[in-house]
Amino acid sequence: TLDIDSDEINSYCKKNLLMPSSFFMTVFHAVLHRLTREDKTLIHFISNGRSELKLANFFGVFVKTLPSVCADFKRPMAEIVKAIDEQMRSTIDRDFYPFSEMVSRHDINVNILYNYFVDLETDVVLDNQAGSNGELNWDTAKNPLSITMLSNEKGDYQCFLEYDATIYNRRDMEILGKAFKCFAENCVKDSYVDTTCVPMLTASESEAI
């Protein structure tokens, strides 16, 4: 868990008409680009899945994991954030695919929805094969790597890193977390600086090197 000062970031987002959510998503893209040296980065973000007005009176879990791609990092941060924000909004607007068409296309047994939402103890049978129930272990990472941004009591941002320990180790995540924090705090100091030039180390760490 990392605490990130919110004052400069909020001022930067307000000045450039940016959403903090899009800002931090872009920071994640940029840091991954710098650490992996990949020209194109792909991450996923969570949507509540309720972009369709027809779902307004429906009760249920419609959360979706949607893609975000960034491929041009040699631009000022504000430009990339605006591009990521437009991409995110466009993706959310198109995230709804009619379940009736999905059922018809893939020959899905619609009783799965009942069993999932209403009665988890009821046996599920699909193609004459009985399904099995399994416990959800919430102590296990749900994705290989995820970043969650929240606000603390002081109004500053808190960054939570969750990772699969069979793929990554704690030291790698500490490096990623510190790079994320430094990039977020440094990129707002100059709206026109190229993202490839934004420091990912503290002043003391740079001096030590």
Indicate the topology.
Layout: E1 2-4, H1 7-15, H2 20-36, E2 41-47, E3 64-70, H3 77-93, H4 99-106, H5 111-117, E4 125-126, E5 129-130, E6 145-151, E7 157-163, H6 170-187, H7 203-208
Antiparallel strand pairs: 1-7, 2-3, 4-5, 6-7
Helix pairs in contact: 2-3, 2-6
Question: Would you kindly provide a written description of the structure presented here, covering whatever features stand out?
Answer:
This protein has 209 residues and is α+β, with helices and mostly antiparallel strands. The chain is 39% helix and 17% strand. A three-stranded antiparallel β-sheet has the order 1-7-6, covered by helices on one side. A two-stranded antiparallel ribbon has the order 2-3. The chain has a two-stranded antiparallel sheet with strand order 4-5. Strand 6 and strand 7 form a beta hairpin. Helix 2 packs across helix 3 (77-93). The longest helix has 18 residues, at 170-187. The radius of gyration is 21 Å and the shape is globular. Residues 110-121 have low confidence and may be disordered.
